[in-house]
Specification:
Structural class: mainly alpha
Pfam families: ABC2_membrane
Shape: globular
Strand content: under 5%
Membrane topology: Multi-pass membrane protein
Transmembrane segments: 20-40, 52-75, 96-117, 129-157, 169-188, 221-243
Low-confidence stretches: none
Number of helices: 11
Radius of gyration: 18 Å
Oligomer: single chain
Protein name: ABC-2 type transport system permease protein
Largest sheet: 2 strands, antiparallel
Domain ABC-2 type transporter transmembrane: 9-186
Length: 250
């Protein structure tokens, strides 16, 4: 991975004020909306309260959206010729993917921090400080999986609509990943195989210890890890294939 490229990318992304505001303020607004929608935010839930549960869920979704959008800009760069310039450098495809994901994780960290700070100020509670720290770290690092997803979709479609397609897919993953509302029955059984289920389940694990909201089911940490690692390998393989295919055409 090239540190100079990462620094240039971070500077370039920070100049796109609209993207940064969307990545930071959209999940905050969703937390405020969902956290107060049912009027039971102060109810106890596992090792904290319902507001903490909603805060982690919205931070996870917002971070996934941020990393998908940042990494997905590879498609636009390719059309504008910046991708051709990068292809002429000695940087390998794996280094390019790693640099993009690093930049996406920095934006994800800012997005999740904004949601956690808002939660802290509006009544989200956990029984211990380590629950805050562990769930936040899981949200930030786990969102890297969706940076790989965004890059794979962006380069595979190679059009201005690629980011829109990736974002639409993310909404589908979130609904079937148990992010916005608790699922049960057959839908829950299917959800366990979808990309966002393991990610948000691990982020909530310090709070819920694997218990599902409104159900008696318990997810083991091994199953949640297997889900996120499996999908990370799938998206990483697709991203590398898309980068190499894009460079081979030049």
């Amino acid at each position: 991975m090239n540190p100079t490229y990462v620094r240039i990318e971070l500077f370039r992304q920070s100049r796109d004020i609209m993207n940064v505001m969307f990545a930071v303020f959209m999940p905050v607004a969703m937390y405020v909306l969902f956290g107060n929608m049912f009027g039971s935010g102060d109810t106890s839930a596992g090792n904290g309260n319902v507001k903490f549960y909603v805060m982690v869920s919205m931070a996870a979704y917002g971070s996934a959206v941020a990393t998908t959008a940042i990494a997905g800009t590879a498609a636009t760069e390719s059309m504008l010729g910046w991708g051709r310039q990068i292809a002429l450098t000695p940087m390998k495809a794996s280094g390019f993917v790693a640099a993009k994901i690093t930049v996406a994780l920095v934006i994800s960290a800012a997005s999740a921090a904004a949601v956690y700070l808002t939660g802290m100020l509006t009544g989200a509670q956990a029984d211990a400080a380590w629950i805050w720290a562990l769930s936040y770290g899981t949200v930030v690092l786990g969102s890297g999986v969706f940076g790989l997803y965004g890059m794979a979709v962006g380069l595979a479609f190679k059009s201005e609509t690629a980011i829109g397609i990736a974002s639409s897919g993310l909404v589908f993953f979130a609904f079937f990943g148990n992010v916005f509302m608790p699922l049960s029955g057959v839908l829950l059984d299917i959800a366990r195989f979808t990309p966002m289920y393991g990610f948000v389940g691990l982020a909530r694990y310090p709070l819920t210890e694997g218990y599902g909201a409104g159900t008696d089911t318990v997810d083991s940490i091994g199953m949640l890890l297997a889900n996120i690692v499996g999908w990370a390998l799938v998206f990483a393989g697709l991203a590398l294939w898309a980068v190499r295919r894009s460079r081979a055409r030049r």
